Hints:
- The protein is of the alpha+beta class and 609 residues long.
- Among the domains are: 5-86, GIY-YIG endonuclease (3-Layer(aba) Sandwich), CATH 3.40.1440; 250-364, 2-Layer Sandwich (Nucleotidyltransferase, domain 5); 393-540, UvrC, RNAse H endonuclease domain (Nucleotidyltransferase, domain 5), CATH 3.30.420; 552-608, 5' to 3' exonuclease, C-terminal subdomain (DNA polymerase, domain 1, Orthogonal Bundle), CATH 1.10.150.
- Helix content is 44%, strand content 17%.
- It has 19 helices and 18 strands.
- The mean pLDDT is 84.
Amino acid sequence: MMPNIKDFLKTLTSQPGVYQMLGYGGKILYVGKARNIKKRVTSYFSSTAKDNKTLAMLKHVEDILITITHTENEALLLECNLIKKHKPHYNVLFRDDKSFPYILITDEKPYPCIDFYRGNKKTSGHYFGPYPNSYAVRETIHLIQKVFGLRLCNDKYSPKRTRPCLKYQIGLCAGACAGLISEEDYQVSVSHAILFLQGKNQQVIKQLKQQMEEASLTLKYEKAAKIRDQLAKFRELQERQCVSAEHGDVDVIGYSAAGVVCIQLLMVRGGRILGSHAYYPTVPLDSTKEEILTSFITQHYLSANKEVNLVPKEIMIDISLPERSWLINALSTTAKHKVRFPENVRGERKKWLEMANASAEQSAASRVRHTASTEERFTTLETLFNDKRTIHRIECFDISHTQGESTVASCVVFNRNGPLKSDYRHFNIKEITPGDDVAAMRQAIFRRYQGTLAKSLPLPDVILIDGGLTQLAVAKKILAELHIHEILLIGVAKGVTRKPGLETLHIADYPPIHLPTDSPALHLIQQIRDEAHRFAITGHRNQRDKKRLKSSLESIPGIGAKRRRELLLHFAGIQAIKHASLEELKKVPGISHALAERIYEALRLVKEE
C-alpha cells in the first residue's frame, strides 16, 4: 500500500473524475470513475469490509493517478477508453470486436443496388442494422434478392450491356444491368425491400395485394401472376425471419456464469431479431454480475471507436444496475436520442430476455467444452518433451503462391483458449526468386520476430513450420541471428500421399516423430497448420486478384485516372476498348491522335499475348 495515504486523501477534490491505481513501475492495475473522487478513493482505505479482489489489488498499489473531468459523463467515457487502451489486470475486459456489418441500399440512379457494408458510412444510401455477424447480413441479402430482385453488382449501370448476369438466370436479380426491368418497377421493388428491412411487413403485403388486384382488373394477368408469386415468396421470407408484433430497436443482454462468464447480445431492429453475438470477457475473481454487465455496456457502446448509431433506443437486462441513471444519461448524450432500460418487461420482450439468457447458457457450455478439449490437446503436446515445458502460445507459418506469383506468408497464433486472431499477420513476400518457399519462409520469420522484439511483444513457446528439415533449419538460423532462444521449433512435413495423420514432426534437437492418428497433440498441430494454410491462401488470393484486376490501361504512358475513366465510360468496359479501332479511340474526349495510336498498339500487344 502506498505510504502517506492519509495526506494524499486530504488533497483530493469532490469533483467527478477518473482514478488509476498504479503498481510497480507505474503499471496500471485498475481504472475507475467516480462522481465524487474524494469519497470514492477514500472508501478503498476505510475500515469497511472489502471483497477479495479489492484486497488483492491494494497490496500492489504504489501510487494513484487522478484525472478531473468537467462532468460525470466525461468521467464515464474517459474510464471506458482508458480500460480499452491499457487493459488493467483488475478491470473486467471485453475484446474489442471489429465494427458490425450493415446492409446498404445505395442511391445510385436509375437502379440502386443492395450490398454488404462494414466501416465508416461514406457511401450515400439507406443503412440497415447493425447485424451481429456477416452471415446474418449475407443471408438477408440473399432472401431480399430472391423476393425483390435487387441487383448486387455495384458497378455503374451500362446502357451498352445486353446480357444479364448469372444471378438473373437463377432468379436472384431482375436484370437491371441489361435494362430488363423498367426504372419505375425497379424503384417499387427497392421501396418494398426498404419497408421490409424497416420491419413494416404488413405495409409491403398490403401494397403487393393492391398491385396484384390492379393488374388483374386491367387484364394484365401475367403481371398479376408474377406479383402473386412474389407475394408467396415474401410470406415465406416472413416465416424465415423472426418477426415480432412489436416494433423498435432493442438490444437484449443475456448473462451466464456457468463455468465461464458469457454475455449474449441479442439484436432486435425494426421489431425483427437479427441474430446474436456471444462475448467472453476477462473477469477478475469475485467480480459481481452488476459489475460485469456495467462494464459490458460502457465498453460496448461508449468506446471512442464505436459508432454513435450502435446505441439502440432500449437496452434490456434482467437486473437493476447501481449506476443505471448514470449509464442512461451518458448513453442518451452519446447517441443523441433517449435510451431506456425497461424493467419488469412482459409479453414478447420477456421472451426475448429469456431467449438471450438461454443462449448465453448454451454458449457458455459450448465454450467450456471447447476450452477443455483445447486444454487437453495442449497438455498432450507438452508430454511429448522430456523438459516438461509449459506451452501457452503457439505460432505457425505457411506460404502460398500460384507458380511464384503474389507470394504471401501467413502467421497464425493459438493459445490455450484457441485461435488468437487479433495477432494473425500476413507478409507480402518480395525480392525473392519466384517459387522459392525457403526464401519466403526466411523472410517471413525474420520480419515477424524482428518486429516482435522491437515492440516488446510476447514470444511464442512453440513455432510450427509447414515444411520439413530445410524449412526448420532456416527458422533455427533466423532465430539464432535474432538472439532468440528457448523456443521449440517443429517442422510439420506431409506424408507421401499428403493424407492427414501421416505427418512427420521434425523437432529441433529431437528425432523425427510419427504420432498416432488419434493423438490429441496431432489434432492440435493439424488444426493450427490447417488454419495457417487457410489464412495464407486468403492473403495470396487477395493479392493476386488485386494485381490481376488492375486495368491494362494503367501501364500505358499518358493514361491517368481521368483519361482512363473517360475511356471506360465511352466504351463501357476494358474489353470494348481492346477491340476498338484507331478511329474510335480518337473520338474519346481528351485522347489525341498520338495517344490513341499508343493505346491501340499497347492493347494490340496485350491481345496477341
